[in-house]
Amino acid sequence: MTILMAMSVYPSEGKPYSLMVADSMRTEVYYNSNKEFGDYEFAGQAFKQDVQKLHKINKNLIIGFEGEFRGRIHHKLISNLNNIINPTDNLHAIHNKVVKEIINLFPKGQLLEEAQYSMIMSGFIDGIPSLSKTVFRDNEIVENRFQTPNKGNFSIIFDPHVTPEMAEQFREKVKYYNSVSFFRKEFVNLAKAASKYSTGSNDNIKVERLK
Q1: Average pLDDT, integer, range 141-146
Q2: Is 193 part of any domain?
Q3: Is the Cβ–Cβ distance between 195 and 208 less than 8 Å?
Q4: Residue 64 in contact with residue 22, Cβ under 8 Å?
Q5: 32 falls in which pLDDT band (50, 70, 90)?
Q6: Which residues face 84 on adjacent strands?
Q7: Of 117, 138, 200, 201, whose Cβ has the fewest other Cβ atoms within 10 Å?
Q8: First and final CA of the chain: distance in angstroms?
Q9: Hey, how many other C-beta atoms are within 10 angstroms of the C-beta on 123?
Q10: For residue 179, is it within any domain?
């Protein structure tokens, strides 16, 4: 799953939550890439099911990947995570388990060597909606950080396809927002603009919300 953006949101009314926006067209590309291994039908279906299960492991967790992380590689990791993530774990604990599993699965010389890919999670730490991001290159961590925003603030943590102009326009629009639905609408519009900028299309944008 290619994650365009994720952020923690503190609306003026209602509970705080986190949002992630993904380009589901690219997810289909990942499914299709299983053809390379001759097991498209099986791996493709299993991959979709595992992703759905992963989203349900913890009601407060969403996980996604970006970059050269696809096909059977992605499928294998997702399958393993369903066995190692405890539903009671917070974002810190889950993040550490996933990073460790990636490193264990793909040592030097394996399929992901020289590739760069990112993992981003959206969950809660001590009841506060938070985000984590880890970037790998050559099977090693080159960036690893958590973001727990101050109440009343929001911040885009991961937006590789968003130009500075897009981000600034979005910030201006939502600076004084007082409606969660309005905020989400503008967030999706930004994701569509980013998708069109990077892929030439803005169809099939999917929004995941933590409740």
Answers
A1: 80
A2: no
A3: no
A4: yes
A5: very low
A6: none
A7: 200
A8: 20
A9: 25
A10: no
Residue 26 pLDDT greater than 60, yes or no: no
State both tokens at 193.
């603009």
Cβ partners under 8 Å of residue 162, min gap 6: 4, 5, 156, 190, 193, 194, 197
b/e map 145-154, b = 16+ CB within 10 Å? eebebeeeeb
> Please, what is the average pLDDT of the chain?
62
Number of structural domains, the chain? 1
> Burial of 173 by CB count in 10 Å (0-12 exposed, 13-18 middle, 19+ buried)?
middle
Domain span holding position 110: 2-160
The confidence band for 71, taking pLDDT boundaries of 50, 70 and 90, is: low
In-domain check, residue 191: no
- Is there a domain that residue 200 lies in? no
